[in-house]
Amino acid sequence: MSRDHVLVTGVSRGIGRAIAARLADDGFTVIGISRRPVPDFRGIHRAIDLTAPEAREALGAIAAEFAPLRLVANAGVVEAAPLDGVTTAQFQHAMRVNLESVIWAMQALAPAMRGAGFGRIVTLGSRAALGKAERAVYAASKAGVAGLTRSMALELAPHGITVNCVAPGPIDTEMFAENQPEGSPARQALVSRVPLGRMGAPSEVAAAVAFLASDQASYVTGQTIYVCGGYSVGGGA
């Protein structure tokens, strides 16, 4: 087992890619997971579909090979639809990627962390968990991540393992642009409600994750940190 190894899920783009780069800059050996290969990845990459039946086995294999003592559960998808448009497929996909995969990753890595008496787990939530129109399934899955984070913080604290959540607000990523394109009225309206008056950058989320994954964050656990430009305070839905 190694305190220098960190497993990061969803590293192919956006926030996940920024997190992997920041942790590599901080001197960690990053084991990155994504469905697609990542050219010039700075670390060890495994192509794994976290919704596939064999995903749990693949996570177990990574745990057996590297025994990483740090986990950043970042992989996520957005399912956008009004209530009447929500489908079973959308619900199942969001829950499998955004919530179920987090549980399986924790389950795979926790034994080594318990054995070492040390661990850092950082989950990725969302400001949308506080409520967002036409994001019912996404918001529900991310609210589940926040609840899971608090519960695991209590369960794992006796073993020296901290568990925290970073919840981004509007961040300028490819996934955000797919749902609210540059120049669209929806995007402009959202940014106008952000107290800091702008979109966030993936690197700003990565900075918060890097602290919570570090040795220095030894007395912080069970918390959700919003990186949202103030949107969680007064932005609205």
Can you walk me through this structure?
This protein has helices at 14-25, 55-66, 88-116, 136-156, 174-179, 185-192, 202-212, 231-234, and strands spanning 2-9, 29-34, 44-47, 68-73, 119-124, 161-168, 224-227. α1 crosses α7 (202-212), α2 (55-66) runs parallel beside α3 (88-116) and α3 (88-116) packs parallel to α4 (136-156). The longest helix is centred in the middle third of the chain and has 29 residues, at 88-116. α1 (14-25) links the parallel β1 (2-9) and β2 (29-34). The chain is globular, with a radius of gyration of 17 Å. The protein has a single domain (2-226), classed as NAD(P)-binding Rossmann-like Domain (Rossmann fold), CATH 3.40.50. Helix content is 43%, strand content 18%. With 237 residues, the protein is of the alpha/beta class. Strands 3-2-1-4-5-6-7 form a seven-stranded parallel β-sheet, sandwiched between helices.
